[in-house]
C-alpha cells in the first residue's frame, strides 16, 4: 500500500472515530434522560405508597411525617421543626414530641 493509501486509511479511521464519539455522546445524553425518567417514575410510585401508608396508619399526622422527611412533594427538602410548628400553629416542643410519637408508631406498624 502506498503512503497516500495509508494516509487515506488513517483519515477514514479518524472520521469513524469522530462519528463514534458523536454517537457516543448522543447515546450518553439519551441514557441520562432515560435514567432521569426512571428516577422520577420510581419517586412518584414510592411517594404514592408512603402517602397511602401514612394516611392509613397515621391519619392525623401523615402530613407532618411527610414534611419532616421531605416527601411532601418531589422537589421538597425536609422541613425544619420551626417551619412545621408554624404550619400547624403549635409550639416547636410539641412538634418534637409528636415526631417521637410518629417514629414509635412507624416502628410498631412497619411489619403490617
Write out key terms for the chains shown.
112 residues, 0% strand, mainly alpha
Task: Walk me through the structure.
The chain is mainly alpha-helical and 112 residues long. It has one domain. Helix content is 79%, strand content 0%. The protein contains four helices and no strands. α1 (3-57) packs antiparallel against α2 (62-69) and α3 packs across α4. The protein starts with a helix and ends with a helix. 8% of the residues are buried. The mean pLDDT is 77.
Helix-strand blueprint:
Layout: H1 3-57, H2 62-69, H3 81-88, H4 92-109
Helix pairs in contact: 1-2, 3-4
Query: What string gives the helices and strands in order?
Result: HHHH
The pLDDT mean sits at 77
In total, the number of strands is: 0
Give the helix proportion (percent range).
Answer: over 70%
Gap from first CA to last CA: 76 Å
Secondary-structure class: mainly alpha
The coarse silhouette is: rod-shaped
Number of domains: 1
Strand residues, percent: under 5%
Amino acid at each position: 500500500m502506498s503512503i497516500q493509501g495509508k494516509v487515506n486509511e488513517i483519515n477514514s479511521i479518524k472520521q469513524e472515530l469522530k462519528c463514534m464519539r458523536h454517537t457516543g455522546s448522543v447515546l450518553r445524553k439519551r441514557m441520562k434522560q432515560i435514567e432521569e425518567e426512571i428516577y422520577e417514575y420510581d419517586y412518584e410510585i414510592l411517594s404514592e405508597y408512603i402517602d397511602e401508608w401514612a394516611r392509613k396508619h397515621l391519619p392525623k399526622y401523615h402530613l407532618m411525617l411527610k414534611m419532616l422527611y421531605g416527601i411532601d412533594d418531589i422537589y421538597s427538602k425536609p422541613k425544619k421543626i420551626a417551619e412545621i410548628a408554624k404550619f400547624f400553629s403549635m409550639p416547636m416542643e410539641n412538634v418534637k414530641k409528636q415526631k417521637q410519637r410518629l417514629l414509635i408508631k412507624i416502628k410498631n406498624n412497619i411489619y403490617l
